[in-house]
Amino acid sequence: VQINKALIKKVFHEAAGTTGVLSKFEPEAVEQLVYHVAAHEVGHAIYNLRNVEKCLPFPSISLEEPRAELTAMFTLKLLHEKHGLPLPKLQTALAHFCLDGLRYFDKYDSSGLRPYIIFQIYAYKVYAQTGYLTLHPASGLLVLDESKTIAALDIFSECFLRILDGMDRADGTSLQQVLEMEMAPENDFVRAVLQLLPSRKDKG
User: Fold this and answer.
1) d(CA 114, CA 16)
2) Cα–Cα distance, 189 to 73 (Å, whole number)
3) Where are the alpha helices (DSSP H) in 33-148?
4) pLDDT tens profile 131-158
């Protein structure tokens, strides 16, 4: 958490200011365990892509970790809609998830972390698409708009359900398209975020 705070301060606009992300959504290990890690691991146990790996033209782990991350996003949405998780708690949980993603970008060239990095590429594209994350016009650093939380979770949940449908149909082609065409490719926003990280500056 402490290492990630240092990254957050470098990447987010006025992160430690009164209205900055570290003031509103200070990373908290227990909350991340409850709302992120637990659902992620349950996702592995219930939906594991190894169950359909014979139909996959790629290593199942490449999509299994992103799918497990989507399980956490889908679970958050359900907790809010069906079980009364208050909106501020929902916003905090997604903010923590978003901020935590920086540590994967900081190790962007790690082959061992590649499945997790693929998900963060996809997630940051969704954040940009929904306006959850933007670049500050003056500083060029990230700005987080928690009012877009549900819009982002809606897209994550739709993707999660499409993956489950592809698994149910043992449709390796559709799953490959999700991985290689939707999730893994960088876009200009992701490249801009990478350039904000000291470990990635000038690497292109």
Assistant:
1) 30
2) 21
3) 38-47, 61-83, 87-100, 102-105, 114-130
4) 999 999 999 999 999 999 999 999 999 9
